[in-house]
Amino acid sequence: MEWSFLSAEALTAALRAGEVTSVELTDEAIVRIERDDKAINAICVSDFDRARAAARWADEARASGEERPLLGIPVTVKESYNVAGLPTTWGMPQYASYLPAEDAVAVSRLKASGAVILGKTNVPFMLQDWQSFNEIYGTTNNPWDHGRTAGGSSGGSAAALASGFGALSIGSDIAGSLRNPAHFCGVYAHKPTFGLVASRGMVPPPAPALPVEGDLGVCGPMARTARDLALLLDVMAGPDALTLGVGYDLTLPPARHQRLCDFRVLVLDEHPLIATGSAVRAGVNRVADALVDGGASVERQSPLLPDMTEAATLYMQLMGSSQGARIPAEKYEQLRSLAAEPNADDQDLSAARLRGMVFSHREWIEADIRRELHRRSWRQLFADFDAVVCPITSVPAFAHDHTPDLAERRIDIDGVEYPYIDQAAWAGLATMPGLPATAIPAGRSPDGLPVGVQLIGPMYEDYTPLRLAELLESAIGGFQAPA
After folding, report:
1. Where does the source fall among the domains of life (predicted)?
2. 250-256 average pLDDT score
3. The domain that contains 102 carries what CATH number?
């Protein structure tokens, strides 16, 4: 039997029943990677010797009666996470030989759960693209069409899952970096509520792994089923033991409902700042139809929805501010001069990002207060709805485009070109207020590419969109391996 595309849940059941060993699962995954990854280039750093040793340990532990959530399950890790003994580069050539001394918190939790880490997955330079390529490791190709992007910045992880290279992976997300690759590769991902998963050790080299949560960005799980997402989130979630973990334990509320017919859902397929391509709109409608068929209450508009233009602009300002903090002084002064130039279009997302990159502390505080007003609006909306269904981005996976300046790139949406960076608008809807969002497969485009949607839920109610994802998986189908 071939095990490579089964869920972690199914593999755990097989391990418990003695139908397979972790060593056999690990060997099969390694054989598949060595055979198929030459064309995909998802695994940029392999760790096969330690993986085999971990698999042997897992089999011995199970034989002695030990049980752990992911005992013996082969997984991969995004390159940006520190793994002791493996390079962490974030795609930056000057750090090609940088070796962290200790694991990231999320990685240590994976290991404590009994997972077998096969290696690390490819990323874009500095994690700042919806394509995963860099000078060190090259380009990751989409398993469905090697001429197209697998997404970014967790593109290597999504491509690995779609290719059967391990049952689970972990990634990160600030501009859709979990959700976008899941959408492009036809897998599942969950952007947790902001701060739910400790991010220490998911830091660009050579910065120390400090217990500091940067703004907007989160660490989260990727999988081939919705239930596996919840399983991996349970392993990853919880406060950092060096800070909030001293005084708090994690207790999340259960999903609001267990049946599709009990959910109240707001469905969106239009954004005021960017078009929605026909293939993505069809995916949203496919999910909406399944909700209606399942008896859910579905609305297409609500006066409670926060202003989406203001939300996107504020998101880009906050993201720019977060990125601007790491810019060298000389470059920062250049950006200050550019940001001071008049710009007639206040809704230009590139201009909003530029202004954010040179925010004063006063301006950031003002923006943060506006964010809290949006969070209040979302709380009011989620009193009437349980989830929001909307696109992750406007198109399926597009052709590789490595034009160095992102400002010069364009994204084609049904024959009309838009600025490349405007793809962030849909992802930012959940990111800016820190809401949980689950990416699910929603069918394929007319030319056979995967299409996904995101299910946005109430803050700290991550199990609500995860449960809805599980129910929709039963209704419309889930992951399918590329032909």
Report:
1. Bacteria
2. 97
3. 3.90.1300.10
